[in-house]
């Protein structure tokens, strides 16, 4: 079997280039990072020097793929004009940073409608994406909508909602999907048996297309099926259990897709989770 792109979300503390060594330290082949402090709207610009240091470190490493996760503050579907504008400006900065680092994928949460209604929220998100994509015609970074758990008024907890956004985006080549196992499970998509796993994947394929899946977040869930609550747990430590992860890492349709842990506990726990995942490989 081809080498799996297994890895985790690692820290950029002290400089974005440190993420590469942090990934290698835990034996990751793929990593996810925040490209800046994810709790702030405005970040210090990424210097040419830091970007070069990052690219050189990456080239000289065993890390095959890097994805960025956007800031949690961004809401591209906000009905509040001020938040919407700030979100668009910050999202534009996120993709500019990705481009400057030579990173091909930006994972983002679609947005929350904040009681303006699901349809309105989905339209607003698509409008934001069209504006941003039109402002960056030469960019290569692909924008990956993450399936969410559907907490509060968060959108993206049905595959159909993500497909509705993509349907309304003019340049579909700039778009893709990130599937998070804890999120889909909390959203009500069961994957615990061979039958439910195959059924959920078939639904994903028919609504969104497996060709559009560019990243997977491997997390177990502290909350039950359909709870609509987003709480990650270590692999096998939650309500999803061991078997679905064995099916995912051995699914031939998903071999090339980076699989990133966002489990709690830090480096030591990541290493345990990665060892477990590797032990599943046929
Ligand atoms: Zn996420
Ligand atoms: Mn995730
Ligand atoms: Mn989550």
Could you explain how this protein is built, in words?
The protein is an alpha/beta fold and 282 residues long. The protein has a single domain (6-280), classed as TIM Barrel. The chain has nine helices and twelve strands. The strands form three sheets. An eight-stranded parallel beta barrel has the order 1-2-3-4-6-8-9-12, surrounded by four helices. α4 (118-135) crosses α5. The chain is globular. The termini are close together. The structure holds zinc ion (ZN) and manganese (II) ion (MN) (2 copies). Zinc ion binds next to loops.
Topology at a glance:
Blueprint: E1 6-9, H1 18-25, E2 30-33, H2 48-59, E3 65-69, H3 81-101, E4 105-108, E5 111-112, H4 118-135, E6 142-146, E7 154-155, H5 159-168, E8 175-180, H6 181-187, H7 194-207, E9 213-218, E10 220-221, E11 232-233, H8 243-249, E12 259-261, H9 267-280
One manganese (II) ion is lined by residues 180, 182-183, 230, 232.
**Level of helix content?**
25-40%
Low-confidence stretches: none
Q: Tell me, what's the shape?
A: globular
Ends distance? 8 Å
The helix/strand series, from N terminus to C terminus, equals EHEHEHEEHEEHEHHEEEHEH
How many separate helices?
Answer: 9
- CATH homologous superfamily title: Divalent-metal-dependent TIM barrel enzymes
Bound molecules: zinc ion, manganese (II) ion
Which architecture per CATH?
A: Alpha-Beta Barrel
Overall average pLDDT: 97
Count of beta strands: 12
How many domains? The number is: 1
The largest sheet, given as strand count, sense and whether it forms a barrel, is: 8 strands, parallel, barrel
Question: Biggest sheet: strands side by side, in what order?
Answer: 1-2-3-4-6-8-9-12
CATH topology: TIM Barrel
Residue share in β-strands:
15-25%
CATH class assignment: Alpha Beta
Radius of gyration, whole Å: 18 Å
Class by SSE composition: alpha/beta
């Amino acid at each position: 079997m081809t080498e799996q792109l297994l890895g985790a979300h690692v820290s950029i503390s002290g400089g974005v280039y440190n993420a590469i060594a942090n990934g290698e330290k835990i034996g990751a082949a793929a990593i996810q990072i925040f490209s800046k402090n994810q709790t702030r709207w405005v970040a210090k610009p990424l210097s040419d020097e830091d970007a070069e240091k990052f690219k050189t470190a990456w080239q000289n490493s065993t890390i095959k793929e890097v994805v960025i996760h956007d800031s949690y503050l961004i809401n591209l579907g906000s009905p509040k004009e001020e938040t919407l504008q700030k979100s668009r400006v910050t999202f534009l900065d996120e993709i500019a940073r990705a481009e400057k680092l030579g990173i091909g994928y930006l994972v983002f949460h679609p947005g929350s409608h904040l009681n303006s209604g699901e349809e309105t929220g989905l339209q607003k998100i698509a409008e934001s994406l069209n504006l941003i994509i039109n402002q960056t015609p030469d960019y290569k970074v692909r924008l990956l909508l993450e399936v969410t758990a559907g907490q509060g008024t968060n959108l993206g907890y049905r595959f159909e909602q993500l497909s509705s956004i993509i349907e309304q985006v003019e340049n579909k080549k700039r778009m893709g999907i990130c599937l998070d196992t804890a999120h889909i499970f909390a959203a009500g998509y069961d994957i615990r048996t061979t039958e439910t796993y195959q059924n959920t994947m078939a639904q994903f394929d028919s609504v969104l297309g497996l060709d559009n899946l560019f990243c997977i977040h491997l997390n177990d869930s502290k909350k039950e099926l359909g709870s609509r609550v987003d709480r990650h747990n270590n692999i096998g430590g939650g309500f999803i259990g061991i078997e679905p992860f064995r099916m995912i890492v051995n699914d031939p349709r998903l071999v090339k897709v980076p699989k990133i842990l966002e489990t709690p506990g830090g480096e030591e726990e990541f290493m345990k989770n990665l060892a477990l995942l590797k032990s599943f490989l046929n």
